[in-house]
Design a protein that fits this description.
Rossmann fold, 4 helices
Length: 116
């Protein structure tokens, strides 16, 4: 079963995504706490990361670490504040909120087929 880690500070979004992805038969873990992400990645070994643009500070660190630099990242964006634009170029893909579930599913499948 493929594993997805969601990093987002909006608990409602986390719960909706987790429920939807689990129905698609993914193993899902989520966090709102950016400092915990490297440890979660070591323990959980996700195949894909879904990161909200407001938590994207952790993205630069993850792409520099050996254990996480190859994990594909889909950055979820809405209104991109200030300097958050710089993270779009680090992510493997971007999806704008609000997004259609079918589009997110297509993006997820594209990356998970590469890793699986």
């Amino acid at each position: 079963m493929k594993k997805i880690l969601i990093i987002n500070n909006d608990v409602d979004t986390l719960n909706l995504l987790k429920s939807w992805l689990e129905k698609k038969e993914y193993h899902v873990k989520f966090t709102v706490n950016e400092p915990d992400v490297p440890d979660i990645i070591n323990d959980f070994a996700p195949d894909l990361l879904l990161i909200d643009v407001l938590q994207a500070k952790v993205l630069k660190e993850l792409k520099s670490l050996i254990q996480s630099k190859e994990i594909p990242v889909i950055l979820m964006t809405g209104n991109i504040p200030g300097d958050q634009h710089k993270f779009i170029n680090i992510a493997d893909d971007v999806i704008e909120k609000p997004f259609e579930p079918k589009l997110l599913e297509k993006k997820i499948n594209r990356f998970l087929k590469k890793t699986g």
